[in-house]
Amino acid sequence: MKQGILHIGFDDTDSRKGMCTTFLAYKIVEHLRKEKVKFLDYPYLIRFNPNVPWKTRGNGAVALKVIAQNPSLVKKSVINFIKEYSAIHEGANPGLVFYEKEKIPEEFSEFGKKALCTLVNRDWAKRFAKQNKIETFHMGNGQGLVGAIGAIGYDFDDHTFELISYRNKLNFGKKRIIFKDSVKKMQAITSPKTFNSYDAIKERILIAPHGPDPVFFGVRGEDVKSVVRGASLVKSDEKLSGYMVFRSNQGTGDHLQNELNLEALRPFSSGFVLGQVSTTPKTVIGGHVMFTISKSGKNVNCAVYKPTGLAKVASNLIKGDIIKIGGGVRKASKRYGRTINIEYIDVIKLEKNQVLVNPLCTKCSKRMKSKGKGQGFECERCGQVLHEKEIKDVARKIKEQLYLPIPSAHRHLTRPLQRISRFNTNMEFDNSEKWFCNFLKR
Question: What residues have CB less than 8 Å from 384, skipping those under 6 apart?
Answer without folding.
Answer: 361, 362, 363, 364, 368, 378
